Amino acid sequence: MAMPITIEVPDLVKLESDFKRAPSKVTEEIEKALTKSAILIQRNAIKESPIDTGRLRSNIIYRVFFGTAVISPNVDYAVYVHEGTRPHSMPFNAVEPWARRKGIPAGAVWQSIRHKGTKGNPFMRRAAEQSGDGVRKFFKDAADNVGKFLAKG
């Protein structure tokens, strides 16, 4: 007959308690990493967004909820700036103030939009790409913090 081997886990009750608390620690760390990531991407999006009146730039917001972060420009025309447009007709008086601020003849701008559309400026995409290393670091730190929490007991 083989000799029995006994394994005792010191502080088993405390270890069980720590593991029960682990899900809330994981949630806390994920929320922190998401918030830090959203702020970083928002900052880069503001830096990358084109400036005319400053309205687009000042309306890039973020929200963190239920394990999700959303960073978005909160102006209706942002998608057209980001993606560009196909050729289309628009009221001349809509083009005129912008052209005047840029020192460009409004008629030429209006004709160009009618024939070529507008070129996109994917500032949000650039912001996300620039933020990648930082976002990865925030989530690595979160995982490390959960590991330390469990190891510390």
- Overall morphology: rod-shaped
In whole angstroms, the N-to-C terminal distance is 38 Å
Helix count, per DSSP?
6
Residues in β-strands, percent: 5-15%
**Spatial order of strands in the largest sheet:** 1-2
Largest sheet: 2 strands, antiparallel
How do the SSEs run, as a string of H and E? HHEEHEHHEH
State the secondary-structure class: mainly alpha
Low-pLDDT windows of residues: none
Number of strands: 4
Helical proportion?
55-70%
Mean pLDDT score, rounded? 89
What is the radius of gyration? 26 Å
Describe the fold and architecture.
The protein has six helices and four strands, in the order ααββαβααβα. By secondary structure, it is mainly alpha-helical. Strands 1-2 form a two-stranded antiparallel sheet. It has a two-stranded antiparallel sheet with strand order 3-4. A hairpin with a 2-residue loop joins strand 1 (about 60-65) and strand 2. The protein is rod-shaped and about 95 Å long. The two termini are about 40 Å apart. The mean pLDDT is about 90.
Short description:
65% of the residues lie in helices and 10% in strands. It is mainly alpha-helical and 153 residues long. The relative contact order is 0.17.
Give a topology summary:
Layout: H1 12-48, H2 55-58, E1 60-65, E2 68-73, H3 78-83, E3 84-85, H4 92-102, H5 106-116, E4 118-119, H6 123-152
Antiparallel strand pairs: 1-2, 3-4
